[in-house]
Known about the structure:
This protein has helices spanning 30-39, 66-78, 80-83, 90-97, 114-124, 137-145, 159-166, 182-185, 200-211, and strands spanning 17-20, 42-44, 55-57, 102-107, 130-132, 152-156, 172-176, 195-196. By secondary structure, the protein is an alpha/beta fold.
Amino acid sequence: MTEILDLSHVRLGDRPLVVCDIDDVVLHFVAPFQEFLRGEGHELLPRSFRLTGNIVSVETQIALEHPDVRRLIEAFFEAQENWQIPTDLVVQTLDALSKDADVVFLTAMPPRYREHRRRLLDQIGLTFPMIASEEPKGPIMQRLHAGRPLPSVFIDDMAHNLHSVRDHVSECLLLHMMPDSPLHLLAPKPAEGIVRATDWAHAAELIRSHIQPKAA
Ligand SMILES: [Mg+2]
């Protein structure tokens, strides 16, 4: 039976909506995950944009099988409070934007690590509501925004998430933000019309000009 994702904790006002991914957008992921792997005797080789097949034992250089990769990702999420730190300017930028827009986090993390992530975000001062789900992001944001005639923005480092929201939420400003990690440089590129924000200062400018009421 498919459970319907509970969005009841997210209350939106009559104002623009900014939906924001977390890993590698709000919190560093790839860099601390690589460090975590080294501590476990493994390393991530940026040979292609996937984890399975590219995480190898330092000693044998043999690639780990998918279940072991999955186990390591879950162990990392379990310990995220010791590893993940905010990206530059994210706290100030989202705080300033939240004066004029509702900010909501949408993270593609297994929901059972929700409490760990909630504690970490709260501790950093990012107290905005969070949705943790591995379902496609477009339909979730569609349910959330529900066709309201208000500006919306979606920010993510993954092309497939940006495309999913593009296909479900009309007139949404799609911003691509990613770390310049060797792994991300191998990632599929987002389609045309999706804007690359180089950092949070740049993202803030793009978001402001999208959500501010246009002069008639
Ligand atoms: Mg991400």
